[in-house]
UniProtKB/TrEMBL annotation, chain A:
GO terms for cellular component: plasma membrane. It is found in: Cell membrane. It comes from Rubellimicrobium roseum. This is ABC transporter permease. Keywords: Cell inner membrane, Cell membrane, Membrane, Transmembrane, Transmembrane helix, Transport. The chain crosses the membrane at residues 16-36, 48-76, 88-109, 115-135, 156-180, 211-233, 245-270, 290-309. It holds the Pfam family BPD_transp_2. It is a multi-pass membrane protein.
From TrEMBL, chain B:
Residues 28-292 form the Periplasmic binding protein domain. Residues 1-24 form the signal peptide. It is found in: Cell envelope. This is Sugar ABC transporter substrate-binding protein.
Length: 327, 332
């Protein structure tokens, strides 16, 4: 293997990381303040809620599924937390538990419909996207819900100088990484995503695996909503709306495949950071507001294009070579 | 609610027309969503008043989907409604919906969010640019009185650029500052897309990049809690009588803004006269139905005003948000 090929191989394997580094460096050169520690920490903090939900989405994508209801779960989970605080006088801890339980239940409803009734995930989660949001809108009658100051104190707090949203994001990503790479369940998820029939023939509990990933996605979407609401302090009818696209984009941009079996917790982290770095960089550079969506779209398209090249390169590397190439 | 509404209207003719003068009509009220206090209050004012006056209201919520709203309006037309009031998703879809209604000889009124073509239908619209200019002018003058030794750094949180209201407010912001030339530095623009999470992320980045912001104008009052989340950890969320206060103005006139002006955190807000707009839309559509006019075309402009820390005492109860606040809206 030549040194050029070697460099190309490294580039293809580390494509998502290199893309993120390139984006940070480009904006850093354009506006040096972008590389300041405060600015970078802010970028990570603002990517945290999308990143947390994207970690859950990676579990689903690994099984070649999709969860379009995450934005609505963010809304309903946070709403339940707010109602528990307002009507039952619960503290932040209990509210967070109620939020997570709501997310798990909503994820379980998706799971029952997908696994139990064998309806395709796209249709089920598209339906529950409207169902969950409609239920939340009905509960609130479109009125805003203000959270107590203790929730905002939680969202704006730091531990050892690191903002709480970043700590939660890091903990979720680390836990997901351990589960996916170092547990039997994680290996089962990859096996199912690569070939569901083979996984079933091998005796894996495929229905339970498929159901569990939707519960994980729902729970993490609810947690993401709580992390966001703890920074804003007010839930309105549009909370979380359309976020499913950011979440899916983050997971895919970081390297997770929509066709299953490829990706990991790191994909969600990289994707969420990349998207937020682009957004923050455009703000730092003072780019015209009309041009910002165009540039965001262009950067994401470029990233996906490079990812396509990476996939093609990896496929060629995996191909069996019967007769080794000669120089 | 109705008594407050009617007292706020102060229009005898309105009550006469709605209550006794007009025949009972079936009105389709198609709105895009109710995501802010303004839309919730506007929705309640229209539905409650029409229903209590003996009219039938068919409500349709498009959940921010312009195509769905067109289908809903078509459905209303098929049901044979006498008139339509819409809050459209955007200016372009409003043109199509107004045209559809007029092609079917059903009078239609557009509430608050104007079509890009104002020549068709009854259009009730706030003069967003002028109202924004009034509010920004107040804080600009306050800023010039406080800061004399350097250019003042303003920041604007822009709404969804597909919404004519957002564009009008942005234009009003610039019109106010242009009067004072180089006393103001180039404004920092922050996109919100009418979404609190987007505004939070972008504003946090903007304030990190430019820590010395003197003046903030938000294109909608519903973003004040988001601004607070960004400024408070940086020690910049302080009332106007304390050192480090960032001058702040908004637009809408909601209950939160009213409370924040009273508390001293916000200095001014441009007020859309919600009750005037609701009254005008209902009056015009009922008058058209009564007259048998199927394609009425009329523009009704809400001049609005700015509620500021200086005129709070006199004009407080002219602002719909302060009326709601006095009814305990924020406690419910």
């Amino acid at each position: 293997m030549t040194s050029t090929q070697g460099a190309l191989d490294v580039a293809t394997r580390m494509g998502a990381v290199l893309m993120l580094v390139a984006i940070v460096l480009v904006f850093g050169v354009l506006t040096p303040g972008f590389l300041a520690p405060d600015s970078l920490a802010n970028t990570v903090k603002q990517s945290s809620f999308i990143g947390i939900a994207a970690v859950g989405m990676v579990f689903v994508l690994l099984t070649a599924g999709i969860d379009l209801s995450v934005g609505s779960v963010m809304f309903l989970g946070s709403l339940v937390a707010g109602l528990v605080m307002r009507d039952a006088g619960a503290g932040v801890g209990l509210a967070l538990l109620a939020c997570l339980a709501t997310g798990a239940i909503l994820g379980a409803i998706n799971a029952v419909l997908i696994v139990g009734l064998r309806v395709i995930p796209f249709i089920v989660t598209l339906s529950t996207l409207f169902l969950y949001r409609g239920f939340g809108t009905w509960l609130t009658e479109s009125r805003q819900l203000d959270f107590p100051d203790e929730v905002r104190s939680f969202g704006l707090a730091s531990v050892g100088g690191i903002p709480v949203p970043i700590l939660i994001f890091a903990a979720v990503a680390l836990l997901a990484h351990v589960i996916l790479r170092h547990t039997a369940f994680g290996r089962h998820v990859y096996a199912f995503g690569n070939d569901p029939l083979a996984a079933a023939k091998a005796g894996l509990p495929v229905r339970r695996i498929q159901a569990t990933v939707y519960v994980v996605s729902g729970t993490l979407a609810a947690l993401a909503g709580f992390v966001l609401i703890s920074q804003i302090g007010r839930l309105d009818a549009g909370f979380g709306e359309g976020r499913e696209f950011d979440v899916i984009a983050a997971a895919v941009l970081g390297g997770a495949s929509l066709f299953g079996g490829i990706g990991g917790a790191g994909s969600a982290v990289l994707g969420a950071l990349t998207i937020q770095a682009v957004k923050a960089g455009l703000v730092f550079s003072g780019v015209n507001l009309y041009l910002q969506p165009l540039l965001q779209g262009a950067v994401i398209l470029l990233a996906v294009f490079l990812d396509g090249l990476r996939e093609a390169r990896l496929r060629s590397l995996r191909r069996r070579v019967i007769r080794p190439r000669t120089a | 609610m109705r008594s407050t509404f009617l007292s706020a209207l102060g229009a005898t003719a309105f009550a006469t027309l709605l209550g006794t003068g007009a025949q009972a009509a079936t009105i389709c009220f198609a709105f895009q969503d109710l995501e802010t206090e303004f839309w919730v209050a506007g929705h309640k004012a229209i539905t409650t008043t029409l229903t209590e006056a003996g009219h039938t209201v068919i409500e349709r919520n498009a959940n921010e989907d312009a195509n769905r709203q067109l289908e809903q309006v078509n459905d209303c037309i098929a049901q044979g409604v006498d008139g339509i009031i819409i809050i459209p998703q955007d200016g372009e879809s409003a043109v199509t919906i107004v045209q559809t209604a007029q092609d079917n000889d059903v009078p239609i009124a557009v509430f608050n969010r104007p079509p890009s073509d104002l020549s068709k239908g009854i259009v009730v619209v706030a003069d967003n640019a002028t109202i924004a200019e009034q509010a920004v002018d107040f804080v600009a003058q306050e800023a010039m009185a406080r800061i004399t030794d350097r250019p003042i750094q303003p920041l604007i949180i822009v709404g969804d650029l597909g919404d004519p209201n957002a564009v009008g407010r942005k234009d009003g912001f610039y019109a106010a500052l242009q009067k004072y030339g180089d006393k103001f530095a180039t404004p920092i623009e922050v996109a919100s897309e009418w979404d609190a999470a987007t505004a939070l992320a972008n504003l946090e980045a903007a304030v990190t990049a430019n820590p010395n912001i003197d003046l903030i104008f938000t294109s909608s009052d519903f973003l004040f809690p988001t601004i607070r989340s960004v400024l408070e950890p940086r020690g910049k969320w302080v009332p106007r009588d304390q050192e480090g206060h960032v001058l702040m103005a908004g637009l809408d006139g909601d209950a939160t803004a009213c409370q924040l002006i009273k508390d001293g955190f916000v200095d001014a807000t441009g007020v859309q006269d919600l009750y005037f707009e609701a009254e005008s839309a209902m009056n015009a559509i009922l008058a058209a139905i009564e007259a048998g006019e199927t394609q009425p075309n009329q523009v009704i402009e809400d001049p609005g005003f700015a509620l500021t820390s200086a005129n709070l005492g006199e004009r407080e109860m002219d602002m719909w948000g302060c009326v709601l606040l006095s009814e305990g809206f924020l406690n419910n």
